[in-house]
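Weekly structure sync - notes
Attendees: PM, LS, DV (DV joined late)
Agenda: review two folding runs queued last week.

Item 1: First target. Sequence and structure tokens pasted below for the record.
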Amino acid sequence: MTTTVKFIAILIVVISLNIYLMTNRNIDQEVSTTIVKNEKIVDEVNNANSKTTTPTLKEKRENHPKEQEFLQEKKNVRNNCDQLIEKKLSTGNLLTICYDYKYNAAKYVSYTLDGNLVNKLNIKKKPRFHVDPKIPQSHQISSNDYKHSGYSRGHLASDGSFDYDEGDLKMVYSMANVIPQDIKINNEFWTQIEDHARKMAVKFDKVTVTNVIVFGTNPTYIGNHHKIAVPTGFTKKISNKSKGYEECFYYDNYVTPKTSQNIKQHKISCSTM
């Protein structure tokens, strides 16, 4: 074999070897690129799965069955009122009345007592009871519906707690804030707990008072024009959350020889409200 032929043969081998190496290098680069791309896809999938399977604390709380039950219950309580009446007092606080058309009466009434005001002035001249114009006529109760009924017109937000301002006092004489009460319960027992609420307002600067009315499954009705249900009892919650104060009381809407005038005997657990 001549030298020229040997040189050509060696050159062919070298070129072939380079072609082979370059081809493999490209394949390696493609494989590496593919691996990187796949790793990115995997990372994106993992991140998506992570977002799905690892919700935030807020998402966990909002999606928790107990939280859903709470929110639904909260919604039910508000929806349980056929009409929610809010009256703005001179203090800027609200007198809130949950009114029920079946009973033609309030189911609960809540308000805030200011300790600096409850004993500031005692307006002697009391307003007249008046029909609440916010309530549809077919469910309005008037003072005449109590005539010859044997029950008194019992304030839920008491007049003695708002006799520092004529406008506020007039608001609590709305018949929407009035309920049929046993005469003795109204004049003696309920008056005591209203006095206690004012004392607590002075002690804690402010208190929130919530009155919840209890109706039986088949309540008695009174009324000459429109009918109003007679409650079986009343609960009153007095509280100041910021100062850790809370008390609750229950009174039947009738008096027996065993009915105590000691308000401590009417104290109940607030968890029952």
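Item 2: Second target, run right after the first with the same settings.
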Amino acid sequence: MENAITIHRISKDLKTDNQYVAFHSHDFYQFVYGLSGKGKIIVSDKEYIAQKHTVILIPPNTDHAVYGEDNWHSISTKFSCNSSLGSVTKLLPVFIGNASQYESILFKHIFEEAINQLDYSGEIATLKLQELIFCLSRRIFQHETTHSNFFIHPQADLDVNIRLALDFIDQHIEENLSITELAKLSGYSNHYFSSIFKTATGYAPKKYINHQKIAKSKELLLYSGMNITEISDSLGFESIHYFSRLFKQIEGITPLAYQNKSKEDQAINMTLDKTIPITEYATPIINKNPASPS
């Protein structure tokens, strides 16, 4: 079966205000997703300002350059697609604007699959990238939004008070949340609250909270620059030892090992042909930013 997408390379890059990638082109697509800071991307003769959550799609065989302006941190995904998916991708604009919450999750999950390199990571990353392209296309051309809660099925007929509890958890994930507090917020007894919460989400309340906290910790480990103690404290864990133990229980790896996978800027070639050199899809970052082209 023909793959709809081939991911060539995924990288997390930092460009300071004196660094840039010179004008070049390549015969594949490139998504650039902003994590923090500010950058400038010139595609053909048009200039785009890129910031946190900004999405830019560089088409194949198109001259472009990337300039750091204020510690521009981004994820770059280089890929090719078959004619069927290509007919969708080529309609997307160069400047897509800010990603939705769910689209941001997809960009980060694709990168996380790349650095994890677990069984089927390549296949999962490919499927998520394909989903991302369809989500962007639907949002842009049909003016729809994408469902953002990735724990709950979009069609789930949730009790309004359970939805209230879920929103409260999301907004207070850094706190030490208790079942009693959530049950009271929902207007239910502890026992009844726990029962209908599990029916609605598939998780007991405490397990759901723990998974949400660990999901947030993974994001902080990869993208925030905070150390493990700071992350543990910021998410309301009783101790770093409990945080580390829970993280390993859920993820199968310690927080330190997970963070070390992306402590420095990462670049992962995803193409399965091992004869391809690691620099095949790389473009060098140059120090000493010259005057920007007019």
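Discussion on item 2: Confidence is low (pLDDT under 50) at residues 144-156, 272-277.
Action: LS to circulate a short write-up before next sync.
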